[in-house]
Every structure is written in C-alpha cells, then in structure tokens.
Write a structure and sequence with these properties.
Elements (H helix, E strand, L loop, with lengths): L6 H20 L22 H4 L3 E7 L1 H4 L9 H11 L4 E5 L7 H11 L6 E5 L2 H6 L3 H18 L4 E5 L9 H18 L2 E3 L22 H19 L1
Helix pairs in contact: 4-9, 5-7, 7-8
Amino acid sequence: MKFCLNRQTAYSVISGLLILLTVWGCGLSDTKTSSTNTNAPASQAESKPATAAKKKIVLFYGNSLTAGYGVEPSQAFPALVGQKIDSAGLNYTVVNAGLSGETTAGGKSRISWVVRQPVAVFVLELGGNDGLRGLPLTATRQNLQAIIDTVRQKSPQATIVLAGMQIPPNMGTSYTKEFRGLFKELADKNKLILIPFLLEGVGGIPKLNQPDGIHPTPAGHKIVANTVWEVLKPVLK
C-alpha cells in the first residue's frame, strides 16, 4: 500500500495497462495461458484464437498489495493464483490491474476504463490506503460501492469477490473497528463473496513482510495466494 510509485512498480503498472488494452482489443486471442504476467514480453504471447478466445477473465483490482510492490510480478499473489488456475486446467486468464498508492477514490475514477469489456470474476482489494491515511470511512464506503455498482453495470454476470482488510490501531479504536467492519457490511449488502482478511497469516509477521511491515515478501505472497485460492476455487469450478 505504498503511497508512491518506484521505478519497478511504475513499469509494472504501465505494462499492466498495455496488457489490458491488448486483452480488451483482441478478445484474448493473443493470450497463451490462463495467467497473464503483467511484465511478460510480447514475444511470449502466442496466437491461439480457437482456445484463448474462450477464456474468461479474472480481474484483480487493487493497490500495491495486488500490484506486488517490492517483489517480481511473477511472485505477486495474482500471478500465483493464475498458476493455480493453470494447474487446475481451468478456462480463465488472470489480469492484474493493481496500482500502488491507489485509494478507493482513485479506484473509483479509473474503474469504468478497466472494465470496458466483460469480466467473469472481479476481485476488489482496495481500502487499505484509505485506512492508513485516516480518510473518512463514509467516503471509503461510497467509493467501494460505486466501484461495485460500475462492475455490475458493465458486467452483470460477474462474480465480485471483496478482500477484507485490517489496519493497525494508530487511528484509534473506533476508527479501526469501523474500518474492519465495513468490508463485511458491503459484502452482505451487495451479496458479494468475502475474503475476511486478505493478509490472514501474513499481516504483522515480520519474516513474511518487507522492512516496511506492510508489503508481503515472496513467501508472504504465497500465503496470500492460498487464502485467495480457497475462496476463488469453488467460484471457478
């Protein structure tokens, strides 16, 4: 949930946006496997219209946790989930639309562009930066709701998975408790599938996090991927 972009993350984001353009423009006709590496060179793509065109999209939409700040793109949990999809022989491709520093307001502003074409599964991981900055939670709820509404408008058949988040108690007990609860409230209200806490088994454990104490290490991302996979697996099968 880094507040600024370093060179690696900026490159990853730009590459991810270019891949989104390719996916939307080509109907996935140039996707080789069901997992899209946001830094994969174009030479790795192979045209297989008959097979790839049938693949459904699992879109991960979030901040630096999703973008994989501080690790290689292939080590970030969305890519690891993509590998699990490949191994299971499921007909889906993963697209990582994570952006470091993203708040729910930023996510709201770009969502219409990101979901220009239908997605099958939309994994929403936003809100952490709002909480760390102590932003008004009324606005956080409204922004997340607007994102959910836009996805449902653009892709009525999409399954939306909401990743729950928790923050340290720096902002006070009341704020921290309300923040933790708003994800379940939104999931219940909108009948979403909820990941209770994305960083379960990782958050607060030094050896599984980078020196900033916020962003998972490669080992941490593996645990996050397992947490997400346990929720996604029954949705995809």
